[in-house]
Amino acid sequence: MLNKEVKLSIVEEFGSNSVDTGSPAVQIGLLNARIRKVSAHLKVFKKDNHSRYGLIKMVGQRKRFLTYLNRTNRELYIKLADKLTV
Question: How far apart are CA 69 and CA 2, in angstroms?
Answer without folding.
Answer: 24
